[in-house]
Amino acid sequence: MIVKGNKHHIVKSGRYSAKLTEVKTVQSGYGERIAFIFEIIEGIYQGVKLARTCTPILKPNSNLTEIIQSLNHKPLSAEQIYDGIDVSQFQGNEYQIRVTQRESKNGFYYSHIEQII
Question: What are the chain's domains?
Answer without folding.
Answer: 14-116 (2.40.50)
